[in-house]
Amino acid sequence: MSRILGVVGTVVLCYFVVLQLYMLTLAAIAATALYKERMLERFGRLDDMLASDISPPVSVIVPAYNEEAGIVESVRSIAMISYPRVEVVIVNDGSRDGTLQKLIASFKLEPVPLPFRANLRTSLVRQVYHTRRPISITVVDKVNGGRADAINAGINVARYPYVMITDADVLIDGTALVKAMRHVAEDRHRTVAVGGNVRPLNGCVVKYGHIVEAKVPRTWIERWQVLEYVRSFISARPAWSAMNALPLISGAFGIFLRQAVVEVGGLTSGHMGEDMDLTMRIHRHYRKLGRPYRMVYAPSAVVWTEVPSTRAVLRRQRIRWHRGLMTAIRDFRSSFFNPRHGSIGMIGWPAMVLFEYLAPIIEAAGYIIVPLGLILGGIDPISALLLLLVALLAGALTSLAALMLDERYGYFNEPLEALKLLTMVFVENLGLRQQTVWWRIRAMIGGKSTQAWGDMQRRGVGNLDRKQSAA
Amino acid sequence: MADDAAPVRVLLSRHLRAAGHEVIEVADGMAALRTGSEAGLDLAVVDQLMPGMLGTEIIAAWREEGLDFPVFVLTAIDDDDTVVHSFELGAADYIRKPVNMAELTARINGRLRDR
Amino acid sequence: MGLSLVTTVLALATVVASVALISVKLAHRIMLKGRGVRSAHYIAALGEMISRKLLPTDTPGQWAEDPLFGDAVIEYRHLLSGEEREFVDHLIAEVGIVDVLQRRARRRWPRAVRLRAIAALVELAGPDQVPFLRFLLGDSNDYVRSHAAHGLARLGDVASIPLILDLATRVRPWEAARLADALASFDRRAVRPINQWILEHWHGDESHVETVGQAARVLGLLGETSAETTLIEMLETDRLGWRVAAASALGRIASDTSRGALLKALGDDSWEVRARAVRALASLADGSVAPAISELLSDPQWWVRQNAAESLGELPGGVAQLQKALSSEDRFAADAARNQLAELRLLPAGTDTALAVGSREGSE
């Protein structure tokens, strides 16, 4: 008995060492990718590219459900994005507040029998509204069908070859679209999707729809998410992107070739991880057809989104995410170590399965087995402690590397702010981490599923000023 | 005088102050809107592309409030849409960047004399 | 034993990384603050000098060494025209900033310093820097090369055009496109040498083929009629890249001479050429091409149909063609027309808005 415990315990600990070493490798690959990116942005004369005629037109799709509070501000901020040819398509997904009325009044929209091709099946569209000033804005008013359904309706109406999918409560940096579309212009025949850098808005000072100052938020739970986002978007994704093995393009900011989304049948209604599902289906589709393609991540194309600030909301979000991941794991099991699926099949997806999906299970097992093994004497306490330390330290190094790489983007330059995040690097192992492990296990056990429109209580981009001054 | 780029703001303010006018400098759209609504201006110069609000949006807001002082719009060299749109909204004149300072000051002084 | 060594190393690394992170933040903040102060100082001082037309009498040498001063000068130079710009140019010469930049552009400097100096140099250089910029065209760094090309274009050094095009044949497509962008910032005097280069390399190898396409794009951006014959000839070759580039370029030039060739290109095998030919014909603003364009409302490709409908919306007599297409038996043509009429607010009330689902080709 104790021998079995010993072997299993050591395997668990070794798994953690491998997991952390994998993350550290990603950080190293990301460092090179980000350096190249940075040089290109500083010295690549990207403005000239914008001025010439090669920037492809983009439709920005904003699904909205009960967004009365901030919808006007957020459409205004999109209209101000600097990009040569862009239209906005807002989909009012059967809101029960004044979202539609506010839009009509603010932009002087008129009901237009604007025909569109229903390439993707959606719930009933009641009316289409349109204006051409300040830019082309189309509002699709439809019966409630959930976020994925709303986006599909937006894709039907979109007229341009590229669609940018975002959310109404997301604050888009004015240069984000240019910076993301640069990747398309670079290799127009192969690029089918570009993902952007999503950062937590919590704690930031917002004025007139712009981030004036990025600050570290006040609660531990928000701070931890800041660190988590930095790790994911600064050190993991650039590395995946460099290998063309991105398993996920965030729903808050993803640009897709419209045709690619239509070909895979649009977003899956009711899926809890619809963004990962879409990304993976596009991968599979192109691999199957044998067409050369690439999906890239653009670290300097930044959008800001509010993350949960209370334990209860975070819990719901994490359970939903993990359920989404579980569905995806089931749907795309054929990609797992599938050489025909190339880098996503051999690197991206196996890493997702082994290090994202299995991690909570193995970690939870570790919390039971290792102490048990120590008590029963199957595990040598010294080597167990050392293995644990190695894993923790490698994890801390990954976080530190991510924070260091993030320094270039200049958001948390105050040493005091940095110190808060630095503390978080070590503190996260004392409870927060175990908490999310538990939530993920809960997600696997089952229970009632959460609603289709996510868990955030929306305050609206325009009202953030007030919130910040009150804070 | 509203422009987020310092040089035009600095130079124009100097010229106008030298000519005996009082100048308020602002660097973003919302500040420009507020100043126009509250300060009782004789004339405004707004840059089209500023953080916060577009120049044309600011003109529209002022006109809606019933303020009818002349407004000059600064636009990029090839931005004809803005020019047309700002005239529709009742802008007094437009100036393209790069700016010819002598011409701009002369036009503004002329406008202020007319009033 | 090995494990404890690893642990120690990692622990040390973590401590070092933590300390490094905080120090970098601290250093960065101090640097940024200093920059902000200096920048504001330069902007104010330059404003003073320019409005009074006063050249600096003291400490200019030290200023010239500061890249931020260069940035401030460039900003003023970009935003001003006429007398003030002349004064800024005079000031640039007087302060000796170009000499400093040229010194920093040499290869012994770190890459970032060097690139920064070159980026400023190409904005501020005078005609006497042409030989140096041409020398930089041969640099091993691609950013240096494309900056040099832009500098030469800004100075209007027409004699460098063949050099830049030759360079474009030897580099990656992305860089070749950036070099072409540089050529587009020349004025119309560039048309003749570019045209000549195309003719000289008409039968070149694969690397020339690409660049000839890029050169055609530039001819379009320059918008000069004298190169039309070449572009029309390109439109009739069997090279797809050339036809695409030539069709867009002719659309930008928009002169009647190309009408016949563009009408013929409406029947091209490639939808990319057809879509561009439609747009190009629309830019001629001549109603007589409307019937020919309305044929393409039935094109197999969605993008061609869309462009045909949009073009008809702009052309005199085009709306009549769209209305006629409404009752077309081809549902795709009717859809395209309906879409455009709705956009123009000309669609009769009560028209059904659902379009045919599916596409005419396997891929749209």
**What is the overall pLDDT average of chain B?**
83
Report the strand count of chain B: 4
Tally of individual helices of chain A = 16
One letter per element, helices H and strands E, the order of chain A comes to HHEHEHEEEEHEEHEEEHEHHEHHHHHHH
Q: Greatest interface and its residue counts?
A: A-C, 51 and 61 residues
Instruction: Give me the oligomer status.
Output: heterotrimer
The helix content of chain B, as a percent range, equals: 40-55%
Low-confidence stretches of chain B: none
Largest sheet composition of chain A: 10 strands, mixed
Structural shape of chain B:
globular
Task: Provide the β-strand percentage band of chain A.
Answer: 15-25%
Structure classification of chain A: alpha/beta
Q: Order of helices and strands of chain B, N to C?
A: HHEHEHEEH
Summarize the main sheet of chain B. 3 strands, parallel
Task: State the secondary-structure class of chain B.
Answer: alpha/beta
Fraction of residues in helix of chain A: 40-55%
- Terminal CA distance of chain B reads 18 Å
Based on Cα principal axes, name the global outline of chain A: globular
Radius of gyration of chain A: 23 Å
Summarize the topology.
The complex is a heterotrimer of chains A (471), B (115) and C (364).
Chain A: H1 2-43, H2 46-51, E1 58-64, H3 71-79, E2 86-93, H4 99-107, E3 110-111, E4 116-117, E5 125-131, E6 137-142, H5 147-157, E7 162-166, E8 171-172, H6 176-186, E9 191-200, E10 205-207, E11 210-213, H7 220-242, E12 253-257, H8 258-263, H9 274-289, E13 294-305, H10 311-331, H11 342-357, H12 359-376, H13 381-406, H14 415-427, H15 432-445, H16 464-470
Parallel strand pairs in A: 1-2, 1-7, 2-6, 9-13
Antiparallel strand pairs in A: 3-5, 5-6, 7-12, 8-13, 9-12, 10-11
Helix pairs in contact in A: 1-7, 1-12, 1-13, 7-13, 7-14, 9-10, 10-15, 12-15, 13-14
Chain B: H1 6-18, H2 29-38, E1 44-47, H3 55-64, E2 71-75, H4 80-88, E3 93-96, E4 99-100, H5 101-114
Parallel strand pairs in B: 1-2, 2-3
Helix pairs in contact in B: 1-5, 2-3
Chain C: H1 2-52, H2 60-65, H3 67-79, E1 80-81, H4 82-95, H5 97-104, H6 111-124, H7 130-136, H8 142-154, H9 161-170, H10 173-184, H11 191-200, H12 206-222, H13 228-235, H14 240-253, H15 259-265, H16 271-283, H17 290-295, H18 302-314, H19 318-326, H20 331-343, E2 354-355
